[in-house]
Amino acid sequence: MASKEKNKNMTLQQRNYQQLQQKHEIKRPIVKNCLKAFLVGGIICVIGQAVTYFYIYFFNFTEQSAGNPTVATMVFLSMIFTGIGVYDRIGQFGGAGSAVPVTGFGNAVISAAIEHRTEGFVLGVGGNMFKLAGSVILFGVFSAFVVALVKTLLVIWGVL
Amino acid sequence: MLAMFFWAFIIGGLICVIGQLLFDVAKLTPGHTLSLLVVVGAVLDGFGLYEPLTDFAGAGATIPITSFGNSLVHGALQDADKHGIIGVLTGMFQVTSSGISAAIIFGFIGALVFKPKG
């Protein structure tokens, strides 16, 4: 929709250029990318499942509550792999497979923290840590707020 | 137990494929994609659909970012049960605390230990 709006305001030259650019744009290998994402994302979740069982058997968590320490452990692992520069490689191969799991969230926070370290710890690390991950937290919290509020009100009013 | 690993792989992989399709077909940036998935997770939990998926696929459902939205709603609803409408605010981060705390703490430790490359 936005692009149509833009098309109207363009001169003929610009439109021609856009057509030319579209013709030469490299087609993304969608199927191949999806397979890679499936493989990488699946493997990360299998590692997560192993960590979950570890917490269930050795620290007496239940299947329900083991998700929390698992997430923390995965973020810890993603710190190690981001720090030694391996997570970027995984990201290049796996695309969304490495971005969608919680390790990708950890990677976004941690890589921003490491990258801005030269600007100092307060303004650099502190100010930029959530540059990428901030939107996830914002929209997560806001949508959760709306969903929970609506559901609670419905319960109070006796609809549910 | 092996079945759980299998389903974690399949479901976790499929959620990542949805993310990849949002990248490639819908041409969204990673930031938009992740935000969208979090909102989807929150809405799914609002309808009570995420918990069955967690029971079924274990880490396949708890590791993808969708579970972040799910556990935010979960914490909010848990406290709303106890304290009424104010619980939506007080309970919001109750379940997700570990993920956010871990990201902040390990992020800072990472910045202390590792040097930027390139």
Q: What would your notes on this structure say?
A:
The complex is a heterodimer of chains A (160) and B (118). Among the domains of chain A are: 30-100, no CATH class; 134-160. Chain A contains nine helices and no strands. Chain A has helices at residues 2-8, 12-24, 30-58, 67-83, 86-94, 96-99, 102-115, 121-128, 134-156. The two termini of chain A are 38 Å apart. In chain A, 42% of the residues are buried. The model of chain A has no long low-confidence stretch (mean pLDDT 87). The longest helix of chain B is centred in the first third of the chain and has 23 residues, at 2-24. Chain B contains seven helices and no strands. In chain B, 77% of the residues lie in helices and 0% in strands. The termini of chain B are far apart. The radius of gyration of chain B is 16 Å and the shape is globular. At the A-B interface, α3, α4, α6, α7 and α9 of A face α1, α2, α4, α5 and α6 of B.
Offer a quick outline of the entry.
The complex is a heterodimer of chains A (160) and B (118). Chain A is mostly helical and 160 residues long.
Residue stretches of chain A low in confidence (pLDDT < 50, at least 5 long) are: none
Q: What number is the mean pLDDT of chain B?
A: 89
Beta percentage of chain A is under 5%
3D shape of chain A: extended
Mean pLDDT of chain A: 87
Residue stretches of chain B low in confidence (pLDDT < 50, at least 5 long) are none
How would a textbook summarize the main sheet of chain A?
A: none
- Category by helix and strand content of chain A: mainly alpha
Q: What would the principal axes of the Cα set say about the shape of chain B?
A: globular
Q: What is the beta-strand fraction of chain B?
A: under 5%
Q: H/E order of the elements of chain A?
A: HHHHHHHHH
